[in-house]
Amino acid sequence: MAFTVGISRYERPYESLRIAVERAGGLPKISPGSRVFIKPNIVTWVPGGVFPKWGVITTSRIVEDVVRILKEGGFEHIKIGEGIVYGGLLRDGITKEAFQTLGYYHLKRRYGIETIDLFEGPFKRVQIADGISLNFSVEALESDLIVDIPVLKTHAQTVVSLGIKNLKGLIDIPSRKRCHSKNGKGDLHFYVGRLFIGLPPIWTVIDGIFSNERGPGFDGTARRTNLIIVSHDVFSADKVGSTILGYPPSDVPHLVHASKVLGRPIDLSDVQVVGEDLNNLISFHKYSFDYNRDNSLPAVMDRMGIRGLSYWKYDETLCTYCSFLNGAILTAIAKAWAGTPWDEVEVLTGKVMKPSGTKKHTILLGKCMSRLHRNNSTISHPIFVKGCPPKPDEVVKAFREVGIHLDGALLEHPEGYVSRFLKKYEGREDFSEEFFRID
Ligand code: SF4
User: Fold this and answer.
1) Do residue 9 and residue 113 come from a single domain?
2) Do 181 and 112 fall into the same domain?
């Protein structure tokens, strides 16, 4: 049996999506009275909305076109929902602001769709493997169809972030943190590769108007890619999306897990691509951030000449919440560097990192590191920064203890530092905010 994936070039609003939908076999064949739940990808939101959204969050262009096509297909009961964090934290009003800015309330007025902040719950436990459960949004679980609208992008930990990975936004925060475990039960790839288990049918529309190299966030580099990929089978959509980003599905660990769960080939032998020659669409996107040779510093900081500090490269156990903070801390460290080597400091993050045993000071960032190494006698001077994720003022205090004076404002108010990433798109007419508005 072959699963169909329809691809179109994005040229015009609505029409281009309509073509991809037809190439993928048309709308889902369920009754118009069915409950439809749309899941866009709004990985984060920064207050004020001033940050690069291209290749990071789903365009409102595609969301509106999907809603229009569903309405024309007679679907009456449509909800759109997302659970959004800011700077790695829940924040009152952030989902409302995102929905407002992205024009979702216009969709409400124009098409009568309902908007849902998923973090308001409720959630229900779903078993995804023997003895392993995650808590999924009841809104999504009780729908008859999930319309999954991820962005065509890479991910620093999971290689790609497409339809299956976008489903992680349907689970609550404790479950999201659990996905970054690394123990006898599984790892991030194991969890992500099972996120579709127990869910209603999924219709996937990959928004590739923009793609993202070194995603999933605004510190990656977006490209104008102009593709729309549609399939009634999320695994097939992801295998095709991954191939387009330059990764055979067998190079993506969570897709390998998914293939085992589904008992299907990891290659494209059970997929029929309609509309474009896949070979002409492949464009390699790097997924991992460059570090120096021993992974002790981001390459750019190593080139700055920073010495006396080993801020070891993140691993897959670092949750989104600590990850966002990590980016802000590294920016603050680069700003604090004055040319004098620091005093043999190392920073450990995530859930499994081990100390080098050779440094004078070890900063243990987050609850996980603090717990894991609370009695580690190989650490000469441990500095615990508890919290899940840690509080910015405690991070500043910890670094001050080893003579590194961070600008606390960068950590407290990341919106300032985030907006700097807009610079690389200045003057680029093909990168317009219009894609994230609905008038
Ligand atoms: S401390 Fe950080 S890595 Fe550990 S669970 Fe909390 S957010 Fe995740």
Assistant:
1) yes
2) yes
CA of 87 to the centre of ligand 1 (A): 13
Task: Residue 388: give its domain's CATH number.
Answer: 3.40.50
Give residues with Cβ within 8 angstroms of 427, minimum separation 6: none
Write down the pLDDT at residue 185: 81
Task: Determine the distance separating the centroid of ligand 1 and the alpha carbon of 350, expressed in angstroms.
Answer: 6
CA of 178 to the centre of ligand 1 (A): 9
Q: What is the pTM of this model?
A: 0.96
383 & 323 share domain: yes
- Ligand 1: atom nearest CA of 367 is 1
pLDDT of residue 414: 78
pLDDT at res. 86: 81
Question: Is the residue at 112 inside a domain?
Answer: yes
350 and 265 in one domain?
no
**Pocket-forming residues, ligand 1, beta carbon under 6 Å:** 177, 180, 318-319, 321-322, 350-351, 366-368, 388-389
The CA distance from 393 to 181, in Å, is 26
Residue 345: per-residue pLDDT: 98
> At 88, is the pLDDT very low, low, confident or very high (cuts 50, 70, 90)?
low
Using CA atoms, how far apart are residues 254 and 258, in angstroms rounded to an integer?
6
